[in-house]
Write a structure and sequence with these properties.
Radius of gyration: 18 Å
Bound molecules: protoporphyrin IX containing FE
Number of helices: 6
Helix content: over 70%
Number of strands: 0
Largest sheet: none
Low-confidence stretches: none
Structural class: mainly alpha
Order of helices and strands: HHHHHH
Length: 144
């Protein structure tokens, strides 16, 4: 692949890591928010969650834009045969759904009572890691 493609791939990975910093940290804030009772702590966590979500959303968009841009290097008939990419795009769709759900939870927490228990958020927190492992194995090994 030419240099241009490799520069785009390099920044695709950089933006993906930046996005993941938020996907790993935001649900942790939800766990603490669901455990905290005093109003001052809850108000501060609500501000941190809102700022963090706004901070990482551009990285999500840039990861996807650069990923789609790389697809323009491949003829359609080649893309049709890239099974690993099809599976990856399904997982990326789930990840975007998770990201938007986090946005909904940021607003739900700001509006008042806990949308779920802290135990629920501990399990919720694990989902992005499962997607990351599956996506990295798919794109590095290209098994099908
Ligand atoms: C619509 C979204 C996305 C598209 C279209 C896309 C597409 C691609 C393409 C075409 C490559 C280059 C493959 C190669 O040259 O070997 C790539 C590399 C990569 N992608 Fe994505 N990607 C997307 C989202 C993501 C996400 C969300 C993650 C992480 C969870 C991710 C992780 C990676 C990694 C780690 C590489 C580097 C693999 C390597 O260097 O071997 N991508 N992506």
């Amino acid at each position: 692949m030419d240099n241009g493609y490799l520069w785009i791939k390099a920044f695709h990975i950089v933006f993906m890591v930046s996005w993941y910093a938020g996907l790993f940290y935001l649900p942790r804030l939800f766990v603490h928010h669901a455990m905290s009772e005093d109003a001052a702590t809850r108000a501060r966590l609500a501000i941190m969650e809102r700022k963090l979500y706004r901070f990482v959303t551009p990285w999500a968009i840039l990861t996807i834009v650069l990923g789609l841009w790389m697809l323009t290097w491949y003829p359609l008939e080649v893309l049709a045969g890239m099974g690993w990419l099809h599976a990856k795009l399904v997982l990326v769709g789930l990840l975007v759904g998770y990201h938007l759900w986090c946005g909904h939870l940021v607003r739900a927490f700001a509006d008042g009572p806990n949308p779920h228990s802290h135990v629920w958020f501990r399990w919720f927190n694990e989902f992005p890691l499962l997607i990351l492992v599956a996506v990295v194995l798919l794109v590095v090994l290209k098994p099908f």
